[in-house]
Every structure is written in C-alpha cells, then in structure tokens.
Amino acid sequence: MTINKGEFVFLVGPSGSGKSSFLRLILREERPNDGRILVAGNDLARLTNWKVPALRRKIGCVFQDFRLLPNKTVFENVAFALDVIGKPRRFTRRVVPEVLDLVGLEGKHDRMPDELSGGEQQRVAMARAFVNRPMILLADEPTGNIDPATSIGIMKVLDRINRTGTTVVMATHDAAIVDSMRKRVIELEYGKVVRDQNRGVYGQNYQ
Amino acid sequence: MRSNFVFSEIWIGLRRNLTMTVALIVVVAISLSLLGTGLLFVKQVDATRTYWQGQAEVSVYLCYTESANPSCHGAVTPQQTAALESRLKAMPQVAEVTSVTQAQAWALYKQAFTNNQSYISTLKETDMPPSLEIKTHNAGSDDSVVVSEMTGAQGVDSVIDEMSILAKFYSLLNGLRNAVVIVALILVVAAILLVANTIRLSAFNRRRETGIMRLVGASNFYIQLPFLLEGVIAGLLGWVLAVALLIGVKSLLLNNLQQYFNYNVGLSATDLVEVIVLAMVIGVALCGITSFLTLRRYLRV
Fold first, then answer.
1. Are residues B239 and B207 in the same domain?
2. What is the pLDDT of residues B191-203, one digit of tens each?
3. In this structure, what CATH number is given to the domain that contains residue B138?
4. Do B216 and A27 touch (CB under 8 A)?
C-alpha cells in the first residue's frame, strides 16, 4: 500500500485494529515482524539507530492528549521542537510566530497550557508538529478530546497544513469529520487493511 | 548544538533533584578523599623507607662511663672497640661497619634535634654512647645473626635492631592504609549506586521532555548529554570538596607526623598534586561511566 506525497489519508477502524500501531511503525517506534516499510524513501529496516532522529525530523506528530510541556509557555512549547534539534535562536524567533499564526493562535504566545482550552492546546501541538516543515504529519485521534464544533477548527488547520504540500495521515474515530472531508479512507480491522477508498466515508457498518 | 540550551537543561535537572545531588556530591567527596588519603599514606611510607635505606640496620652501642648495663665495666677501651670491629668485619653478613665516637654522636644528636632545644639542654657530650653502625647485606635474615653475635660481647652496652622497630612502624602505617582504602572502596560502591539512582531519577522526572525530544527527532547524544553532564558536574563538585579535605589531611595529619621524625620525610607539594589529579580522574570517570551506563538502561532512545 502506498501513500503519496501531499495526500490526506484517514485511518479508520475499531479500537485495537492497529491504527496507532500503523503510525508507530511509520515513526520507527515499532518494528514490523515482516514486510517492508519505506518512509520518504528510507527503508526502515535498513535504518541504523542513530539515523532514526533524522527520519523523525521529517515527520510531525499530534496526539489525542496534546503532550505539551506544562511548565512552558505556548511559544516555548513550539520553540522546544526547534531548540532540541539545534536551531539557532534567531531562526526560532522568526519561525515560531509564523506557525502560531497559521494555527490561529496569534496573541497567545505567553499563555501556559493550563490556561488554554482543549482546542487551543491541540493547535499548539500542531504548531509544534509543523514548525520544522516536516514532509509528513501524523495525527493520532487529534479530535478525541475535543468537542465537535471545535474539531472543525482543528481540521481546518490540518487542511491548511496539507495544502502546503505536507502529507497527512490521521487516525480517527470521528465519523462526522471523515464524512465531511471526503478524503482517502483506509479502514483497518484486526490489523488488516479491509478498505482503501478515495473520497471515502467513515464506513457503512458504523452509523 | 546550542550550549545555552544544554546548560539550562542541566541546571534544571540538578535543581529538581537537589537533595539527591547534594547527597551524591558528599559521598563522592568522602570516597575520593579517603582514596586520596590512602594514597598519601603509601607515599608517606615510601618517603620514610627511602630515608631509612641510607641508615644503619643494626646499632651496637658501646659501654661508656655512664652505662647502666652491669656487664659494662667502665668505658669501652680502644682495643675492645678494635676487636669488635674486626669481628664484625669478618662476618659474612656484615656489609659495612661505621664507628661513631662520643663526639660524633653528640654532633649528630644536636643536628637532629635543632628544633627541640629542650632535648639538647638536658644532655651533654658524655651522655652520648659511642656506637658501631652496621649495614648488612640482607636486612631480613642477617640482622638477627649480627644481633645475637654482638649481644653480651665485651664492651657492648646494648644492641638495637633498627629494622625490627621500623618493621613495626611500617606495618602500622600499612594497616592504617588498608583500613582507609577498604572504607574508601565501600564508599566508592555507594557513590556508584548513588550516581545511578540520581541519574535514573533525573531521567524519570524529565520523561515528558525526553519523550518529546525523541519524537521531534533530537539526536540521541543531545538527549543524553544533559544527564551525563549532570553526573559529571556533581562528581567534579565532589572532587573539589575532596581536594579541600585532602589538603587538610596533609597539613594537619601528615605534617604533624614530622615531629616524630627528626629529618624531613614530609611529602612535597608535587605528591599532593599527583594524588589530587588522580582523584579527579577517578571521580570523573566513575560518575561519567556510571551515568552513561544508567542512561542506556533507563532513558529510552
């Protein structure tokens, strides 16, 4: 199965079907028992441990539980992703405000995560995932902890990110969102791909 | 790599675990200073040994006018002295015989106790016994032969086997050294365990940050470096304390030893510096290696 550059893919399926494992395999957090995985041209099986960080810089991640650092401001949280890969301060000071604008958080640079709503925290997470302009953005149930109305805002950001050319793979239970966006849908069941449909819906079985 | 970032992470790490870091520093300080003290003892023994190599091994004190020994009938005569000397020279065990007259003995005594005028003022030249200073070929076995040969001979007041006195002194110092080193090694084990625990705790406390660092693609080295340096810096601080303690040991303990000897067996500044540098190498290596091994186990990369 191939996902091409710039695609937007929904990964759907019941709990335990392997959606999170799919994403973890792409990140090289897990190793497959057999088969080949190629990410951005890299054969993951051939990748030595010390080359893995370079791979992960090309991939951004967003999670259901946001995973922000509670003791850092919004700006610092996003800047953290640049600091730890050694980007200079000048670069960070220029780029972080840009990406915070992209996700719709201008003016909230100095807020702490516990002062933000769920939707805003997820936007910070997306800003952090996107700040280094990765090739691929993985999202593991990003709207899981967010109400339906705010979820729309989150999806708009993801769409914006996708339109810059970033490949997006999103695992989700959110039927409404999948149905409204009509992107490629890959359905997993017990670890196997049972459906791969362009402009798909969440599924006939799950109403 | 941004050094500011690394240093701020290290500082945060040290502060969060302050109590453990302090405990670590203290244990490293004590173990390094005990190890260093053991080393200083070894050097001290060597210094005294070197001095004594040049001295006589058996001293035969001859009768003089004030002799307390009842078998002495007045001062030793030149013939008796000559007879004793030739008898000694004939013995295969004897390498060298030096005769020391009363006048020479007095001069040596005054020189030895120049720092203690009270010892000099209470005595005079005629209180000094003349002696025959003997060096043997093989101190271990020959000395006792010479001692038994000379004891009770005509004109002999007393025979002192210097080496047996020294042997006691060496064994005392060695015993002290061994005790110190054993305690030091126990503390070194404690230090290793403490470093491992501190690093492990530190890594656990910062798992959120390290998790994100991994996700975002920070290199393994960059993730581990702050923790490694935490361990090394704590070790270095412990070493600084140890240096202060070692300087104390040298100036208070060992320099006071000097007063029991009337020649210079003091350790030089170079000796102390050697021990200090060795302590630093051991301290840094200990902390660094333990930190590294602990990180491999507890920090997922």
1. yes
2. 899 889 888 888 8
3. 3.30.70.3040
4. no
Quote the CA–CA distance of A180 and A188 in Å, as a whole number. 20
Q: Is A42 on the interface with B (CB under 8 A)?
A: no
What is the CATH topology of the domain spanning A8-197? Rossmann fold (3.40.50)
pLDDT digits (tens, 9 = 90+) for A175-205: 888 888 889 999 988 888 888 888 888 876 5
**Better-scored residue on pLDDT, B272 or B53:** B272
- B259 HSE (CA, 13 A, CB side): 5
CA distance B63 to B81: 10
Per-window interface: B 195-224 vs A, CB < 8 A: 208-209, 211-220, 222-223
Domain that holds residue B13: 3-52+167-298
What is the separation of C-alpha A132 from the centre of its chain, rounded to a whole number of angstroms? 13
Alpha-carbon distance A29 to A44, whole Å? 11
Q: What pLDDT is attached to residue A155?
A: 92
Q: Which of B1, B208, B217 sits opposite A54 (nearest CB)?
A: B217
For B3-37, the pLDDT digits (tens) are 777 788 788 777 877 888 888 889 889 988 888 88
Distances (CA, A) of A30 to A25, A190, B14, B299: 5, 17, 32, 17
* B134-158 per-position pLDDT tens digit: 888 877 777 888 888 888 788 888 8
CA dihedral over A12, A16, A19, A22, signed as positive or negative: negative
What pLDDT does residue A8 have?
A: 93
Name the helix (H) or strand (E) containing B105.
Answer: helix B102-112
The verdict on ipTM greater than 0.90 is no
Q: Are B130 and B95 part of one and the same domain? A: yes
What pLDDT was estimated at residue A160?
A: 92
Judged against a pLDDT cut of 90, whether residue A115 lies above it is answered with: yes
Domain count, chain B: 2
Please enumerate in sequence order all residues whose Cβ is within 8 A of that of A132, keeping only pairs 6 or more positions apart, or say none: A57, A60, A81, A82, A85, B216, B217
A 65-124 residues with CB < 8 A to B: 67, 69-70, 80-81, 83-86, 88-89
